[in-house]
Design brief:
With 336 residues, this protein is of the alpha+beta class. It folds into 2 domains: 222 residues, Cation efflux protein transmembrane domain (Alpha-lytic protease prodomain-like); 86 residues, Cation efflux protein, cytoplasmic domain (Alpha-Beta Plaits, 2-Layer Sandwich). Strands 1-4-3-2 form a 4-stranded mixed sheet. Helix 9 links the parallel strand 3 and strand 4. The longest helix has 41 residues. The N terminus is likely disordered.
Length: 336
């Protein structure tokens, strides 16, 4: 018998947990987007005046980041829609589709333009203009990007404390890719600004535009790495990723502690959106348990899982015999 049922209190959990996280994520994205738009314009002006390919690459970088923030904002709004008859578990995974498009924007516009600028400068060379404006733009951009980065870091630390883990582990395992994207992109922006400044300085000292071109190419490599890492994370979540093994172990422990439960031979989880997941398990109940006992135990199991992780939206329990055959069937390779 399969018992699909919404986890008790899952709407409350959504309001208390996901609502707060979604609001924080939206604020982080809006701040980053506005900062990047202003920075992109300033970098473009600085690049045109200084004739620096690294500065032009940074302008493309900030423009790509601005487009990324717009797509991430769309992702948050589209993914937060309530379930309906056609999409009974909601639209959470649509967030990862839009986030994946954001990665493509970074890859094509940011990295592609940076490589083109860097290679053109190395092959053709260009006399440097007045670098003073570029230095001023880089300094102001560093301050603005730093403020956006600090906001993202504060959110990561706050969320990590809420889940009882480290910020680094939270970033590695979180299903909220918007926070991960803003944190990665702002970190890359700060590194890119340093690279652009080094390229400008070395060209100014040596008179060789090679350094400016190398800086532009390094910025492209940086953007390529960030886009690839974020794209990989979004694809994994889009096709249905499980939660961390440590969290699954906690779920198994909660189920095993329910009265009338003898064993939990199979437990699976899948992420259905930022901070949202489904728990599915084959449960071996005591042989003496009545139908009423199983119903009470199932309700208690769902209550425990929601209490353990506020992101649990649905719990599917399948009573099964504890003779080992359920585990064997779950891990049996496909025929042929």
């Amino acid at each position: 018998m399969t018992q699909p049922a919404p986890a008790p209190g899952h709407v409350l959990a959504k309001d208390a947990g996901e609502g707060q996280g979604n609001s924080e994520s939206t604020g982080t994205v809006v701040v980053a987007g506005l900062a990047n738009l202003g920075i992109a314009i300033a970098k473009l002006v600085g690049g045109l005046i200084s004739h620096s390919s690294a500065m032009m690459s940074e302008a493309a970088h900030s423009l790509a980041d601005t487009i990324t923030e717009v797509l991430l904002f769309v992702a948050l709004k589209r993914g937060a829609r309530d379930p309906d008859a056609r999409h009974p578990i909601g639209y959470g995974r649509e967030t990862y589709f839009w986030a994946l498009l954001a990665c493509l924007a970074t890859f094509t516009l940011g990295a592609g333009f940076s490589f083109w600028q860097g290679i053109s400068t190395i092959l053709e060379g260009e006399e440097q203009g007045d670098p003073l404006v570029a230095y001023i733009v880089l300094a102001v951009s560093f301050v603005l990007e730093g403020e956006s980065w600090l906001k993202a870091v504060r959110q990561v630390r706050s969320s990590a404390r809420r889940w009882g883990t480290t910020p680094r582990r939270y970033l590695a395992e979180t299903s909220d890719t918007t926070v991960k994207a803003v944190t990665f992109e702002d970190s890359a922006a700060l590194i890119g600004l340093v690279l652009a400044a080094l390229g400008l300085f070395l060209e100014q000292v040596t008179g060789d535009p090679l350094w400016d071109g190398i800086a532009a190419i390094l910025i492209g490599v940086l953007l390529l790495f960030v886009a690839g890492a974020l794209a990989w994370a979004n694809v994994s979540l889009l096709i249905g990723q499980s939660v961390a093994p440590s969290i699954e172990a906690q779920f198994r422990e909660e189920l095993a502690g329910v009265e009338q439960v003898s064993a939990v031979p199979v437990l699976m989880t899948t992420v259905i959106g930022p901070g949202q997941l489904i728990v599915m398990a084959k449960v071996d109940f005591d042989d003496t348990a009545t139908v009423a006992d199983i119903e009470r135990a199932s309700d208690e199991a769902k209550r425990r899982l929601v209490a353990r992780h506020e992101g649990v939206r649905y719990v599917f329990l399948d009573p099964t015999r504890g003779d080992g055959r359920a585990r064997a069937r779950a891990h049996r390779p496909p025929a042929g």
